[in-house]
Amino acid sequence: MPNTKTAVPFSSTPEQMKALDAVIAKHKGQAGATMPVLQEAQEIFGYLPEEVQLIVAEGLGLSLSEVYGVVSFYTQFSVNPKGQKQIAVCMGTACYVKGAKEILEKIEKIVGCKAGGITPDGMFSIDATRCIGACGLAPVITIDGDVYGRLELDQIDGILAKYMK
Amino acid sequence: MADIIKLKINGIEVEAPQGATILEAARLAGIEIPTLCYMKEINAIGSCRICVVEVKGGRGLAAACVFPAADGMEVFTNTEAVADSRRGTLELMLSNHRMDCLTCLRSQSCELQNLSKTLGVDKVRYPLDNQEPELETSAPHLTRDNSKCILCRRCVAVCKKNQDVAVIGPNDRGFATHIGCAFDRDLAESPCVSCGQCIVACPTGALTERDQTQEVWDALADPDKHVVVGAAPSVRVTLGECFGMPVGENTEGKMFAALRRLGFDKVFDVDTTADLTIMEEANEFIERVQNKGKLPLITSCSPGWVSYCERYYPEFLDNLSTCKSPQQMFGAMVKTYYAQKAGIDPKNVFVVTIMPCTAKKYEILHRDSAIKGLPDVDVALTTRELGRMIERAGLMYADLPDEKPDPAFSEYTGAGVIFGATGGVMEAALRTAADTLTGQELKSVDYNGVRGLEGVKEASVDVAGLKVNVAVASGTANAKKLLDMVKSGEKDIHFIEIMGCPGGCVNGGGQPVQPMGLKNFTDVRAARAKSLYDMDKGNPLRKSHDSPLMKTVYKDFLGEPGSRKAHDVLHTHYHKTEKYPGVKV
């Protein structure tokens, strides 16, 4: 298994840290506190880096491994921040049979990070999503909310170029 | 008799106590139900589905390890439906288990292999997946190969429940699920204490000690090296298990014979430096009591515990005895005192120890050494590794004669030998401290309050009119309980013994692996510990300071306990260690 640690260094504001402490204090001692604390922590930071998971673990009296086990189990949690520009590649059934896998691979190659990851400069993040409900447009991707459908592989370079300026 | 229930298992009437599981009730009817993920009281999760049985009137099959037996119940453990289900489950496990059984260290002691045989699985109908090794070798004590892992969670359970460190767990989900540290970092970067309890819990070859037998064979083959060996107290009551002998059988004489026949230049005994540890530690305790030093004094013989303290309770590092463990004292004394006496350059002396422990492999890299630049101990082997060397050498262990170790470090006392069981170090230290403080030869040497397998034991003992509160904990989860009580001021304790593994060294992570099916119903720790206490009782010398060897080494070399020389050779420092060196908050 590759180490899924993000390429972007973690930074936080004192307000975020204070909010995290409050969340931990609110749930500490409750049965099943881990899930709500992680969900609220992700709302604060946008994602759950190792540093935040460690604070949650120590705050709840768990080990980092126990917390990471939960984070890595649920797809709702992300250990990577979102890029300034967010690319989502639909991997729903219709898009998949229309070649979404090849499209994703091409985007990964051009942008320089894997699905679920972020580029070291923090510019792009890629998500492989479930069906986004635009099957008629398959295969489909979205970049910062712009929808691109009925894609052919050779269109990808041109589309991404618009966002690389 | 409301607390007894009656049920029928395979048509056999059986009475079982209320609350018994089907698994337990079946044993009372003389029926063994196979299990895999189940560890009594530690991992009762009913998840592997190997122990399934038919319960009359029940829907589907029930997991016998967790399903409570009930009055009037009818259970069938060996129907075709049960056999089919178990075989199917096992086949699925095997489909992504890397089967390199011919070359696997756990061949013939593998629970998966045994199950295949007993359940009659002679082929796997599914395409085999996962056939490349997935090795984790970052830590000095352990090798993990996830391609052989069947995700039973036994390692995870002991790491959390017995040791309370939980450095490993299941990561990711579905087919991608695998056991690893947080963020799949290296084990060496995690706060693992190297206890090896996960290894003795593993049913397969996924977890093994880092095998260093070749380093020892190489040293033995090197004519320039003077290779010296010594075995820890508990090894002599477990080594026989590697050769199918009864659990806990004392095979001390055969062990010495085997070591000699393997070609070691000198066969000594670490029991002797267990006595030496007591000489220093009892003196340290008396000094701390008389000079108002830091109390409670906490023993430091268990490197699993010391690693735990360095990572989880650094505020107690000043409480740790500065005495090295018997292993480190052994190496230090061999490379100084013995090398000097024998006229050998310590650089050419290669010290091998045989230990019940995997943390000893970590310890030899991290403690101060007696001679700058030379490690006290060169290689620490586990009991299992020695067993493999004996096998390779073709020695018929059970038929070996009883021999004695070589004179320089051979004579030990009963106090030295009980180091291998929880409470033993405490008892040994009290025997010497009591005599030293009273200036008399006290007749009563048995401190029963510190014996036995409870996780935390406390006693108040009268040492020369001084009331000494002592406590003993084994398993780092129990250490945590005890230390938290000391920290909160709830307990006023003067002297504490802590062993990293539950039950002490007899249950160390380097000991022969016994199948969980046996351990769930027999306490192998008790059988092994009993042998040690029997040896203590049968030894005319019960106190470390009565050992003629101790008198000699202090007269000829060390001066007196706690002397400058003793500190240079036999004592060490500890270091606060970051739990997660890779994460900065």
Please give a structural write-up.
Chain A is α+β, with helices and mostly antiparallel strands. Chain A has two domains: 14-73; 85-163, Glutaredoxin. Helices cover 44% and strands 11% of the residues of chain A. The mean pLDDT of chain A is 93. With 585 residues, chain B is an alpha/beta fold. Helices cover 34% and strands 14% of the residues of chain B. In chain B, helix 8 (270-290) packs across helix 14 (424-438). The longest helix of chain B is centred in the middle third of the chain and has 21 residues, at 270-290. At the A-B interface, helix 3 and helix 4 of A face strand 8 of B.
Would you kindly provide a brief summary of this structure?
In chain A, 44% of the residues lie in helices and 11% in strands. By secondary structure, chain A is of the alpha+beta class. The longest helix of chain A has 14 residues, at 14-27.
